[in-house]
Amino acid sequence: MPISLRAALMAGALCISGTAVRAEPISLSQALTLGAEQSPRISQAKALADAAEARARQAGVGPNPEIGVTVENFGGTGPYRNFRTSETSLELSQRLELGGKRSARVAVAKAERDFALLAFARAQFDLARDVRVAHAELKAAEDRAVLARDNVGRAQELARTAGLLVEAGRDPPLRKLRADALLAEAQAEQTRSFADMLAARRLLASLIGSNDPELSAGDTSDQPPPPEVAHDVSGLDERLSEAERDAARARIKLAQATAVPDVTASAGVRRFADGRETAVVAGFSIPFPIRDRNRGGIAAAQADSLASEASLAQTRLDAKRARHDAQFAFDAAQMRVEALSGAGATQAEEALRIARAGYAAGKFSLVELIDAQQAYNSAKLLLIEARLDRARAAAALVRANAQ
């Protein structure tokens, strides 16, 4: 085993055993707050929303006027060899947007801004879901590590008792070998559980931006169930898909407006060098749309709109199924937790205590003690997994009900 991994596992063992000073366990609400404040995912989504807001402000700005200077009739032959007969024009021109381009551009930018704001909210809810799951996984990993530590302690005591019984002639030597094998298995499981705990710790730390080497998850068994929402209320994913559809519709109008040519009007003053007279000049220009009528752009925007409609329909189906599945999974996990937390767990613990005392007194065999130990471990692990499944389902349900 690499030295770094061995050191990490030893640190985890000390942390679980309580011989090292442990930091206060982080609660779920604290983890959610840290994640929202420090996650790069949230920073990225916020920056994208700010950029969309800035583009929405910019979309309403019209084109700038242009100023131009034109010098004519110079540098030629005869009387045009110099600037004596030149004509200088100073003109101011302005492109006039036609076809509703500006309003269509503003509508697209506002729709994209709304989409970016909803995407920001989605990033927040997605991170919250991941933090909830990671927090629950760390708590479950810590509980499994504690159980593995306790199993090692019981296995050591069993091996010591078996050795005494063998020395006293009350048990054959094979029982001591079996007890030693159980101790080796328990120590191997302890190593694996500590490695899983360290991996879960790193995952939660990466999500919330924590550098605490002894990060520990607080108990979440008293968390209230996720609130229910009305079935006819659009969820976050549906609203996001609706915003994408609205933006696609707005792009159709923008593509149609782009096909309308703009007019450029100009006005200025012309000065004649030979007599120093001046005159007003004015004009306008307009493209002649015989080649580019933006037909391809309009067709593409219409196709994108059809795709967004289909995407919205699929999102509504997926959102409905996700809510139903998450609610069903949460209810089932809650029932499992309640069943496994009842008399069965208490009875398994009491049976193990009686079996250990009975084996030490010579009233029970090693096989009976092993069966009691396995039944106790199974009950504890099932409860840990049920609580983890409940936390995962609760995270999925909160995300599915996000608005």
From TrEMBL:
Species this chain originates from: Sphingorhabdus buctiana
Domain of life: Bacteria
Keywords per UniProt: Signal
Signal sequence, start to end: 1-22
Record-linked InterPro entries: MdtP/NodT-like, OMP_efflux
Biased composition annotated in UniProt, kind: Basic and acidic residues: 229-242
Region (Disordered) residue spans: 211-242
Protein name: TolC family protein
SUPFAM superfamilies: Outer membrane efflux proteins (OEP)
Family to which the UniProt record says this protein belongs: Belongs to the outer membrane factor (OMF) (TC 1.B.17) family.
